[in-house]
Specification:
By secondary structure, chain A is α+β, with helices and mostly antiparallel strands. Chain A is 33% helix and 22% strand. In chain A, the strands form three sheets. In chain A, strands 1, 8, 9, 10, 11, 12, 13, 14, 15, 16 and 17 form an eleven-stranded mixed sheet that branches. The chains are: A alpha+beta, B mainly alpha.
Chain lengths: 536, 353
């Protein structure tokens, strides 16, 4: 008798626990109409200073908290740079001096007015702090020594920037739209300066911007929340509060989206995207990102430096097969070094899997009987899948590939030391201008080992290209943006035919959202997410 | 008198002193040696790992100049023993350095994430004790009965089912389909940042703030992860309780008690269970310590911002200050709970006093 009552008691406990749950749970079916709730992986968000931010989640936040002198129109990204905090600008007759006129009556979240002195301070501190993304500005010749001369507020509403030589204006302006172009509140930041750090320590965990939103809280690896600023110069944001919560699991993001607890899920797997695309009330948006996936052939290798072998390996790649199977929803076929949506984009995809053609090319190159190679690759799942596909298709023309898998540090170390046969990896642009990729894929002014131009992919592959290097240098100083775009198209066409780079894919991003959520712009390959455009 | 390994280690290092003082000093020395050893091992592991903490800060695109400046500013150009000495001095003053990933002091980060883990682990352990112990006792008392078989199957499931799978299925059924419980996270998103943070444990803070709406919401969110973690705890505790009880029930003093005509309930609870309490305290303490370490998978699935997730994310990003700080806290918890269980021995067993 006693054991029976005990068993009943034990069973009743968890049952009562779960039965009471529905009465305890009070969650609403949907988020409030003026609040945007996003699930995203934000564990790469390490600090908040625009002079140092260089990670995806941090850049999304900065895009909405800080304004820049020039900006993109989120609803028409292909339009190029448009006025931001600078309402107009002129280029001097020397081709080097840019004069920006600041937008009047704009205020920071602190209430301080936005002036040219703030813009001067913000751009100067990027150079003086010398953090990783500072090269985006320092490539125009700014140094700690000359920055006071070359970035100067000449009146409360006028900022003058002088570059060291003539550059394409589109190049300069595009770079000012990058994260490092965020204008900070000089007065507020300097109140928190410690040991001459220009407020860097404080800005790592606080904000001092003039954007559509101000930062309410940031809990690393957990969430951040933004509050809309009334009277924003672009117009009040419809979403009065934005909360971005770190949810790393795709399946969890999907459940939250289906339950209506979030408006947007940003890291859904292909399977989860497929499942929610059939659900009523939910929608999926596809957008291109900037990352390029490629393999490259070391030109020091006696076989891999032969043009016909290079061509053959490009024909031994199953682009569509990979993009249609394990990379579905994550990458699409793309075969040029500039991501689509960039100025000078090239949509041509001349290569497809053609084993017969590859065999003919190898025969003409004197390698009908094949050869053996080592491919180095980082231990990331998508890269390993691609490497195995290449290993399989290369073998169809008797090219035996041995995979060497290592950590990012090991593989990158060998790549930088030119110690490899084939490298498989990815490249993402640093700023929204074609020069970011052209400078690395098609520019190599000194091919000697001693030159150590490890930042350039052309150098890492020992690809000696004096003519293409000059063409790339010419494109970066072309004043006419349309002509400049055409120059990049021409360079990419040559690159596609002759280079030792087998460019295969461009990353795509799929975002799940409630159907009622409109105008959530993820920024394509050139920008970041915009929250102030969203309506419900 | 029963002593833990920590105490014994300390005692060996001591010369003869008055008994009471010797015991206290031995315990303190043992703790100090354990903590120092923990510090050395975690520090060395952090330095030999094949990831580059400098690269984690400056990024792959950084120039050699920027990389080198960061390396020097972090002190990585110094010999290993100098780096350890600097770190050791910092830790002695309660400073684990700055997290590279959050730009906060590691101590602040741990104070932020630990209450979430403490809350979850405490609820799970309470479930483990209040359900696991009685079913373990009765399973042993009615050995080979249907109830015992059921408990064994239940325990087997608890041991063998991957927590990742159980968590996802739990979410799908109770949150996704039935809508009985709250979703991932500690609160519904729109309740966040409303109540003041006092202890960091939302169940307690909401009660202190008198906000029952948030309390109910927090309960709805903790039910599922705590039940899942608690299930594993129940499985472990019930299996161990059964095993301890079986050992006691086969002793002669139990036969004597039965011969004397004591009721079966008195035999089980007054005699056998009291002796089981001693090893059981250790089992419960270790089970609690394991949960406090943070269940990484449960925290990941339920987007629960706790210590496990913090240490794992830091480890994957080469944030060694955070990893060392987190590991040191976990080690301290184990040592602390070990001492606490020693103390409980003395409470429940007069022979240990």
């Amino acid at each position: 008798m006693r054991i029976r009552s005990f068993i009943m008691g034990i069973c009743a406990l968890p049952l009562s626990y779960l039965v009471s749950a529905p009465f305890i749970h009070t969650a609403g079916a949907e988020t409030p109409a003026n609040m945007l709730v996003i699930a995203n992986r934000i564990d790469d968000m390490v600090q908040l200073d625009p002079a140092e931010i260089f990670e995806f989640a941090g850049m999304d936040m900065a895009r909405n908290v800080y304004d820049r002198l020039v900006a993109f129109d989120p609803l028409n990204l292909s339009k190029g740079a448009i006025p931001g905090l600078a309402m107009s600008w002129t280029l001097g007759s020397d081709g080097q001096t840019y004069t920006f006129t600041m937008r009047p009556e704009v205020k920071f979240h602190s209430g301080n007015p936005v002036t040219a002195a703030d813009a001067e301070f913000s751009l100067r501190r990027v150079i003086l702090l010398k953090k990783t993304p500072s090269f985006i500005l320092s490539q125009f010749g700014f140094t700690a020594e000359n920055v006071k001369e070359n970035i100067k507020a000449t009146s409360p509403m006028t900022l003058v920037i002088k570059t060291d030589k003539i550059y394409a204006p589109s190049f300069v302006l595009n770079c000012l739209t990058a994260g490092i172009g965020g204008i900070v509140d000089k007065k507020l930041v300097m109140e928190h300066e410690v040991n001459g750090d220009l407020g860097h320590e404080w800005l790592k965990t606080h904000s001092a911007g003039s954007g559509a939103y101000k930062l309410s809280s940031w809990k690393p690896n957990e969430s951040y929340s933004l509050t809309a600023v009334p009277g924003y110069w672009r117009g009040d944001a419809a979403m009065k509060r934005v909360i971005v919560r770190h949810v790393s699991e795709s399946a969890t993001q999907r459940l939250m989206l289906e339950k209506g607890d979030i408006d947007i899920a940003r890291n859904l797997s292909a399977e989860d995207i497929k499942a929610i695309s059939k659900k009523e009330g939910l929608a999926v948006d596809n957008d291109l990102r900037g990352r390029i996936m490629y393999f490259s052939l070391n030109q020091k290798h006696p076989i891999l430096s032969k043009p016909k072998v290079i061509q053959a390996l490009k024909y031994l790649t199953d682009y569509k097969g990979m993009a249609g199977s394990f990379l579905k929803g994550q990458y699409s076929v793309h075969q040029a070094f500039l991501p689509l949506t960039y100025l000078g984009e090239l949509k041509d995809t001349p290569y497809s899997l053609n084993v017969q053609k590859a065999q003919t090319l190898l025969k003409e190159a004197g390698h009908e009987e094949g050869f053996e190679l080592e491919m180095i690759v980082r231990n990331a799942q998508e890269r390993l899948d691609i490497a195995q596909s290449l290993q399989n298709t290369f073998s169809q023309a008797k090219v035996k590939v041995n995979l060497t898998v290592g950590t990012g540090k090991q593989i990158l170390g060998r790549y930088r030391n030119r110690d490899f046969d084939i490298y498989l990896g990815a490249w993402g642009p640093d700023y929204p201008d074609p020069q970011t990729n052209a400078d690395t894929f098609s520019h190599n002014p000194d091919n000697r080992d001693a030159a150590k131009l490890t930042g350039k992919l052309a150098w890492r592959n020992a690809w000696d290209i004096p003519k293409m290097t000059l063409e790339t240098e010419a494109a970066v100083v072309e004043l006419d943006a349309v002509k400049r775009g055409e120059m990049y198209v021409k360079i990419q066409k040559q690159h596609q035919m002759n280079s030792p780079f087998g460019i295969m894919f461009q990353q795509t991003e799929q975002t799940g959202r409630q159907k009622g959520v409109q105008n959530f712009i993820t920024g394509s390959a050139i920008s970041e997410a915009y929250y102030w455009t969203v309506t419900k | 008198m029963k002593r833990s390994g920590i105490q014994k280690a300390g005692e060996r290092a001591l010369i003869s002193l008055p008994k009471g003082l010797k015991s206290v000093l031995a315990a303190l020395l043992g703790i100090a040696l354990t903590m120092f050893g923990l510090l050395v091992v975690t520090f060395l592991i952090g330095r030999v790992m094949p990831i580059d903490p400098v690269l984690a800060i400056v990024g792959k695109r950084a120039s050699n100049e920027i990389y080198e400046a960061a390396r020097i500013s972090l002190g990585f150009d110094q010999p290993l023993y100098v780096q350890f000495w600097v770190y050791f001095k910092q830790v002695l003053s309660g400073d684990f350095g700055q997290s590279l990933l959050t730009s906060n002091a590691v101590t602040d980060d741990i104070l932020r994430v630990f209450p979430a883990t403490l809350e979850l682990a405490s609820v799970a352990t309470l479930l483990g004790v209040f359900i696991g112990v009685p079913i373990g006792v009765y399973a042993a008392a009615y050995k080979e009965s249907i109830f015992d078989q059921c408990v064994r199957v239940f325990g087997l499931f608890g041991y063998s089912m991957p927590i990742f799978w159980v968590g996802l299925i739990g979410l799908l059924v109770f949150y996704g389909t039935l809508g009985w419980v709250g979703g991932p996270g500690r609160l519904d998103i729109f309740y966040e940042d409303i109540i003041p943070q006092i202890t960091g444990m939302i169940l307690i803070d909401s009660l202190l703030a008198g906000d029952f709406e948030i309390f109910k919401n927090a309960v709805s969110h903790i039910i599922l992860p705590a039940t899942i973690l608690g299930y594993y705890s129940i499985a472990y505790i019930s299996r161990m309780t059964r095993s301890f009880m079986l050992e006691q029930l086969s002793q002669e003093y139990i036969t004597t008690a039965r011969v004397k005509g004591m009721s079966e309930q008195s035999v089980i609870w007054r005699h056998a269970f009291r002796n089981v309490l001693i090893p059981l305290v250790t089992v419960i303490a270790l089970s609690y310590a394991n949960l406090l370490e943070g269940s990484v998978l449960t925290e990941t699935i339920f987007a629960w911002p706790g210590l496990g997730q913090y240490i794992t994310t830091s480890l994957l990003s080469a944030d060694m200050n955070a990893v060392l700080g987190g590991t040191f806290v976990v080690g301290t918890l184990f040592v602390g709970l070990n001492i606490f269980s020693d103390f409980l021995y003395k409470v429940v067993d007069p022979r240990a006093r």
